[in-house]
Amino acid sequence: MTAEPTKTQETQGTPAAATPQPQTPKAIPASAMSTTKLLGFAFLAGAFAALLVIAIDFAGKDPPVRFGVVNIQDILERHIKDYAARNLTKEQQQEAAATFSKSLEFEIRQLAKKEHLHLLVAPAVLSDVPDYTGYIEHQLQVPDGL
Fold first, then answer.
1. Going by CATH, does the domain composed of 66-140 fall within 3.10.180.10?
2. Where in the chain are the domains?
3. pTM of the prediction?
């Protein structure tokens, strides 16, 4: 009388290939370790280079922008008085006005760029902000006291 095999006997009798067996971890070859170290070093070097580029980029930035005022009304009044005293023809007045307007705009842009300023017209500013009207007048050589 032969007994029927039980399930445990059936699984024990099957070849090893049919059921996966847990594998023991193998040692990592030395070449893989050096590759891992090399990749780690490359990653760290790349990260350092990226941070260095960012630091250089921030160091190369312009300083913070400041505010200043220009009293354009005073400059224009002096300009008008100066040219009114010269008895110019209408064409000469128009030419002088166009030249003065271009010069005024150029000097204001140059000052703003050189000093990293946002220049505002004086009546628009209620707080203490440096006044650059005298500097602009000097650059334009607008005569004083006319």
1. no
2. 31-61, 66-140
3. 0.52
